[in-house]
Amino acid sequence: MLKNLLGCVGEYKRPSLLAPLTVTLEVILEVIIPLLMASLIDKGISAGNMNQILYYGILLVIAAMASLTCGALSGNFAAVASSGFAKNLRKKMFYRVQDFSFTNIDHFSASSLVTRLTTDVTNVQMAYQMIIRIAVRAPIMLISAFVMACRINVRLASIFLAIIPFLGVILGVIIKIAHPIFMRVFKTYDKLNNVVQENVRGIRVVKSFVREDFEEAKFKGISGEIYRDFTKVEKILAFNGPSMQFCVYTCMLLVSWIGAHRIVAGNMTTGELTSMFTYIMQILMSLMMLSMIFVMITMSRAAIERINEVLVEQPDIADVSDPVMEVPNGEICFDHVSFSYSGDKNKLCLKNINLKIASGETVGIIGGTGSAKSTLVQLIPRLYDVTEGTLTVGGIDVRNYDMKALRDAVSMVLQKNVLFSGTIKENLRWGSENATDEEMIHACRLAQADEFIRTFPDGYDTHIEQGGANVSGGQKQRICIARALLKKPKILILDDSTSAVDTRTDALIQEAFAKEIPNTTKLIIAQRISSVQNADKIIVLDNGRIESVGSHEELLASSHIYQEVYYSQVKGESDDAR
Ligand SMILES: Nc1ncnc2c1ncn2[C@@H]1O[C@H](COP(=O)(O)OP(=O)(O)O)[C@@H](O)[C@H]1O
Ligand SMILES: [Mg+2]
Fold first, then answer.
1. Any residues with Cβ below 6 Å from ligand 1, and which?
2. Model pLDDT for residues 495-549, shown as the tens digit of each residue
3. Domains, the chain, ranges and CATH?
4. Ligand 1: nearest atom to the Cα of 106
5. Nearest Cα to 348, choosing from 392, 391, 388?
6. Average pLDDT, the chain
């Protein structure tokens, strides 16, 4: 696990090493300074030797300056190293997420990925900064103070050794209790992020349904959960300091008691006992620092585990070793295909689909919501892999294609389509990076988007806001269709992509497709019969199964579901006309 993370230190190895090095120098100087001071007093001031005063005085100033410089440098190196480490870690995670299949993303949820890339990385960054600086400083300080104490009196100093196991047990118990709570708090963070993200993205819906109170209550609930967990965990962690102090003061008591006896017996000087106390204080300080580090590490351990989960998640859809680089044609064949989102064969979403679509055919897909229409077509560009059976495109199993080659040949307008912030042109170029203006205009003409784009003051350079908030639903759908067309795909899939487009424009789009891209296989999922009735064949899906396949006329004669949908819509239209 740590190997995965440490790889991210990358080009920041130098500051990562320099930080502990300078900190070590700083501590050494800090320990030397009292010695110089003692010499200055003993050999200089007490002896009245001006030369010695100057000599040790200058040395003292140099040591103090050097210690200060080292301290500042180590702070600087640690900051550079930890921010750089966090940057690399975030980048590695982000790149990983880009490789995720839809299944991988379903596994984490988008908001959890956001928390992991932000809050969790920040926690690890802080822990890293602490480890390369304070975690080096504290033990060195501890050891040198201990060594100094030993130089005075080994038996007295060994009292410290006795308390170490005791401290270890306390810290161990604290960490054992605190770790699961931290794990839970981070999960709640995911939920909080989800609420905030959902609310902010859907703020217009929230407002139009006057659901602000409800959203506030939901937020308060989760925020309260985090508050309670954090209070609980902080209470446990608060035991840390007092137990340290208890140990150290116990030591002091013992040292005073034993030391006093020794002074009386003439085995020790008062001065030695005084220095002993100085070292005890230094040891106390370093123990406090160490316990702080333990807290930080406990907290970041939860974060590290969550980050690691992202890093080790295997993209479940990967290229084969010798992939096919070219999709020969737009033929599609489902052979006994079953599919389940969870991979569980008892919870099949698509059941035993057998279907042959010739290259260049236009196929309509009709079915109620939840009948698995979207699921069926998502298998074709391999957004998900089939659970059972085989799916071939152009006669070759989709799993044997190079992913990019397949997805370039299969262009899909998702039901939940998105435009990105940027100009219309920039959005269109997602379809084809090097598309010329003519190609873009042509694609937009086919998608019946050219006309309305021209009415915008900035035309194709109109800025689209995040999520396409400043264009209408139907306009957005048409830009998305144009974007898909720019790929010049062999297979074009429209998943309910004209639902917000008026019937007449919809018909114009179908007409343009039939005329201009006759060789492209077209799969059109629609709610309106009018969108699919001219298709070569229409598939009626019901609850993950193909209920029937046929032309409009055939289905009207044979399919119960199709008849029902058709007559309800025809009746609706004639009602409208009245
Ligand atoms: N990402 C997903 N994870 C788990 N189940 C899903 C997912 N997407 C859809 N489903 C389920 O699969 C079924 C079919 O959904 P879908 O193909 O979207 O239907 P349609 O497009 O016909 O409305 C539904 O029961 C839905 O709950
Ligand atoms: Mg759907």
1. 106, 341, 349, 367, 369-375
2. 998 888 888 999 999 999 888 899 999 999 998 898 898 999 999 999 999 999 9
3. 2-312 (1.20.1560.10), 332-577 (3.40.50.300)
4. 1
5. 388
6. 87
